[in-house]
Amino acid sequence: MTDQKLIERILKGSSDGSRMLYNKYAPYIFTICKRYNVPNNDLKDAMQNIFMECFQNIERFDSQKGVFKFWLRSIAINQILSSKRKKRLTCISLDEVRIDTVFDSSSVLDGLALEEIVKVLEEMPEQQAMIFNLFVIDGYSHVEIAEILDINVNTSKSHLHRARKWAIKSLEKIKGEEDSSRKKLRMIY
Fold this sequence. Notes:
Elements: H1 3-11, H2 15-35, H3 40-56, H4 68-86, H5 114-123, H6 126-137, H7 142-149, H8 153-188
């Protein structure tokens, strides 16, 4: 069933439509929650809050202006960030940080499974991971990130720079461990 049909059912008061929409998008929202490092013990509440916000405001969705999936994604990101903002993360601001590219060394990613890369991002410090996700994956600018997180633009840049360095170091370590294991296997055979 299309999103528009499900939305029409929800607007008519169908709990079946709500359930179907939830089942369709729960894995997607779960992935966003994990990407933004929502702790496992908070996942259920986070997802409930996201879908509650969605259902309470579903009449505001306009299919002429965008795709439902992206509308729901923006609700999810805003809910997650709002929750994190309430916990008031402290940030260190650096005046000048130059970031040319996120991964200028694509060789660090060669031969690594997606699961390994996701694991590294899950282990990344929370503030860095949040900014990395907003900038790299969701396409927000540093100005937008600064507004969303109520931080300085340079703070956003510095956290992205640190996230990039942290990720490259972690990925190189994983890759080095794999290369070492391969060498040991070759020595055995």
